[in-house]
Design a protein that fits this description.
Layout lengths: L2 H9 L12 H4 E7 L2 E7 L6 H13 L5 E7 L13 H4 L11 E8 L7 H14 L4 E5 L7 H4 L15 E2 L2 E2 L2 E5 L15 H13 L1 E2 L4 E7 L6 H9 L4 E6 L3 H16 L4 E6 L4 E2 L6 E2 L7 H7 L4 E4 L4 H9 L3 H4 L4 H19 L1
Parallel strand pairs: 2-3, 4-10, 4-11, 5-8, 5-10, 6-9, 11-12, 12-15
Antiparallel strand pairs: 1-2, 7-8, 13-14
Helix pairs in contact: 5-13, 7-8
The protein binds adenosine-5'-triphosphate and magnesium ion.
Length: about 350
């Protein structure tokens, strides 16, 4: 076996299962390769992870042809490094996560790709849960492109603060809500925050909102993609689960995979996938058309160990009522999308109760 091949393999073996962002190669302090026999010394100050690291190393190296793998541990920090790596548990960036006050269950609605209907799904899920009798909040965490105020008809809602500087969430259609859109002087005001200011604002949104009575569910509408907002959320707040929204096309599904991987990395359980714009039912003939082709979402969900929570049809009423500021679930009882959203909400409640 070639030494470089062994090192490359170790570099590509991440340790995210124990919540750290480095690879096996980062822990390596000594390595000898003789034929197919490998001796490796790993840095690990805590015995707690020895068994895991030993097994992981053996499995990794045997997969590339090693016959005997001898693993030793050292707790001595490397001499050349001034700051020795911390033991894995202390490096876990998720240990400082806090629960969002005043909320029982927190659900993040995300998508790998923009424009797939994430906000529509988030708002209608909130409405569906409300319709089922739960107390619900909606947090628009899309700091650069908030659509919550439009979709919930809340553009004119005033936000006031409590004496201890908590923003009081106004209510729209019985749903408590907060969006950066409510705090900007006008809809056209661009948000030009950069890193630290964005984090501060997001942190305030997560922890300094007064939601009134305790919420059964808080739905967080995320911006598209796998960027800073998602990572900050994962590192600072305890999220009970993520729902990933997609459309049936392959290009959107590629991004679903990225989304699932990101949530795995930030240790947020993926509750399931909602496929939006799945099909269109012709109102004249009742015939169903799969406009974007045959869906593969269910296969992808299975492949990644999650499930398809439901398929939402393309229905002009969804967009019409959205623009009017009323979620279709509350506006049109008999719409097919309403039925589909109610079913997704039911599955969601069931899955959360099994956690
Ligand atoms: N099932 C549907 N039927 C008809 N129109 C829909 C449906 N779902 C979403 N739309 C429309 O598609 C547009 C995009 O939806 P939406 O804003 O919810 O997407 P998004 O994923 O949140 O976008 P962004 O990535 O910009 O945040 C909106 O005009 C919305 O009304
Ligand atoms: Mg959106």
């Amino acid at each position: 076996m070639a030494l470089t091949g062994v090192i490359d393999r170790l570099k590509n073996t991440n340790l995210e299962e124990i919540g750290v962002s480095f690879s096996l190669a980062d822990l390596m302090r000594d390595l000898k390769v003789e034929g197919n026999n490998v001796y490796i010394k790993l840095f690990s100050p805590s015995e707690k992870y020895h068994e895991y690291l030993k097994e992981k190393t053996e499995k990794t190296l045997k997969s590339i042809g090693a016959e005997n793998v001898e693993v030793e541990f050292t707790s001595e920090p490397p001499k050349q490094q001034q700051q020795p790596p911390q033991p894995p548990p202390q490096q876990n960036p998720f240990e400082s996560r806090r629960r969002i006050p005043g909320v029982k269950k927190v659900i993040a609605v995300a998508s790998g790709k923009g424009g797939v209907g994430k906000s529509t799904v988030a708002v209608n899920l909130a409405a569906a849960l409300k319709k089922k009798g739960y107390s619900v909040g909606y947090l628009d965490a899309d700091m650069y492109g908030p659509s919550g105020p439009t979709m919930l008809g809340a553009k004119d809602k005033q936000v006031v603060a409590t004496p201890d500087n908590k923003l009081i969430a106004p209510e729209a259609h019985g749903i408590k809500m907060m969006s950066i859109g409510l705090l900007l002087p006008s809809e056209d005001t661009p948000v030009i925050w950069r890193g630290p200011v964005l984090f501060k604002a997001l942190s305030q949104f997560l922890f300094d909102i007064n939601w009134g009575e305790e919420l059964d569910f808080l739905i967080i509408d995320l911006p598209p993609g796998t960027g800073d907002v998602q990572i900050t959320l994962g590192q600072t707040a305890e999220i009970d689960g993520a729902v990933i929204v997609t459309t049936p096309q392959d290009v959107a599904l590629i991004d679903v995979k990225k989304g699932i991987q990101m949530f795995n990395e930030v240790q947020i359980p993926v509750i399931g996938i909602v496929e939006n714009m799945s099909y269109f039912v012709c109102p004249d003939t009742g015939k169903k058309y799969e406009i974007f082709g045959k869906s593969k979402t269910e296969d992808v969900a299975k492949q990644y160990g999650t499930e398809l929570l439901g398929k939402i049809p393309i229905e002009p009423k969804v967009a019409e009522f959205s623009d009017l500021g009323i979620p279709v679930v509350l506006a049109k009882e008999d719409a097919q999308s309403t039925q589909a959203f109610m079913e997704v909400a039911e599955k969601l409640i069931k899955k959360l109760s099994e956690q």
